[in-house]
Write a structure and sequence with these properties.
Largest sheet: 6 strands, mixed
Helix content: 25-40%
Number of helices: 10
Protein name: NrtR DNA-binding winged helix domain-containing protein
Strand content: 15-25%
Radius of gyration: 21 Å
Structural class: alpha+beta
Distance between the termini: 64 Å
InterPro entries: NMN_biosyn, NUDIX_hydrolase-like_dom_sf, WH-like_DNA-bd_sf, WH_DNA-bd_sf, WHD_NrtR
Shape: globular
Length: about 300
């Protein structure tokens, strides 16, 4: 008898379903915001993606649009249940527009509810000081000088301490650092360590880690591929487009530089209509160019993140 036969393997399909509404990045959740839509891969599913779509639509009644495989998680202790069965999670990133949902306590939640330190558009000084102090205390608690230096270097790189630049793509590394330091609820739940469970809302199993991976992937993609198209309505103002990119990246952008970049890349065209929803002077409405929509599947369009002043 083999070890594999003694410990059966099961596959779970997990969806990180993202939308952006009113300058707020959203993620579709179930079970009162504690889980991502998910379910086991079953023999009746034609493919992994077909199984994922079936579970998402059954649990939330929301259709899936753009989907790409994200990552496979196979850590032995990734679930809360104490079971002999090994469960791996095959996760997917899906982009859509916010729509009505129902079933399984499904709801849209802002993703900064789970990662408040990731929103750098108007960062909380109190939260920053709290994390800074807690991480430095964890660094000082290292077993020896070498470990203390290594911990401090990781904290500086991940959280931009001591003059280091903030890298918005290090979402997973920041969460895992806080986990290792015992500063998030999931670490306390798993190891019984004392920490600060109010650093973001927790999720069941390792779903917050999966969500962090999805956010990092999307933040990287918006710099070189126009996937933000999937999140925008058919027509929009340039301000709405900028706010959507800022929301996803968690960074403020320089208004004129951003508009200059959009014009140079020829990503959008005017619709000929004006928006009456904006205060003051009506703003021009734009749409993404049809030829760009076709070309994106082949080579994409470079969309780097424009830094604010």
């Amino acid at each position: 008898m083999t070890v594999a036969s003694q410990h059966p393997l099961a596959a779970e399909l997990v969806a990180v379903l993202v939308a952006a509404t009113d300058a707020e990045p959203l993620v579709l959740t179930t079970h009162d915001g504690r889980m991502l839509p998910s379910g086991p891969f079953e023999s009746g599913h034609r493919s992994l993606q077909a199984g994922l779509r079936a579970w998402v639509e059954e649990q939330t009644h929301h259709p899936l649009g753009y989907v790409e495989q994200l990552y496979t998680f196979a850590d032995r202790d990734r679930t809360e249940q104490n079971t002999e069965q090994r469960v791996i999670s095959i996760s997917y990133l899906a982009l859509t527009r916010q729509g009505p949902v129902s079933g399984a306590d499904a709801a849209w939640h802002g993703w900064y509810r789970y990662f408040p330190w990731e929103d750098r558009r108007a960062p909380s000084a109190e939260l920053g000081e709290l994390i800074d102090g807690a991480l430095r205390a964890w660094c000082r608690a290292g077993a020896d000088a070498a470990q203390r230096r290594a911990r401090l270097q990781r904290a500086e790189v991940c959280f931009g301490l001591d003059g280091r630049a903030w890298n918005e793509e290090l979402v997973l590394q920041r969460y895992e650092l806080l986990f290792e330091a015992g500063l998030v609820h999931e670490a306390i739940r798993r190891a019984g360590r004392t920490g600060l469970p109010h650093l973001g809302e927790p999720m069941r199993h390792d779903h917050r880690r999966i969500l962090a991976t999805g956010i990092a992937r999307l933040r990287a993609k918006i710099k070189y591929r126009p996937v933000v198209f999937e999140l925008m309505p058919p027509s929009f103002t340039l301000l709405q487009l900028q706010q959507a990119v800022e929301a996803l990246a968690g960074r403020s952008l320089h208004k004129q530089n951003f508009r200059r970049f959009i014009e140079q890349q020829q990503l959008v065209e005017e619709t000929g209509a004006l928006s009456t929803e904006t205060p003051g002077r009506p703003a021009k409405l734009f749409r993404f160019r049809g030829d760009v929509m076709l070309e994106r599947a082949l080579s994409g369009s470079k969309l780097p993140l424009v830094r604010g002043n």
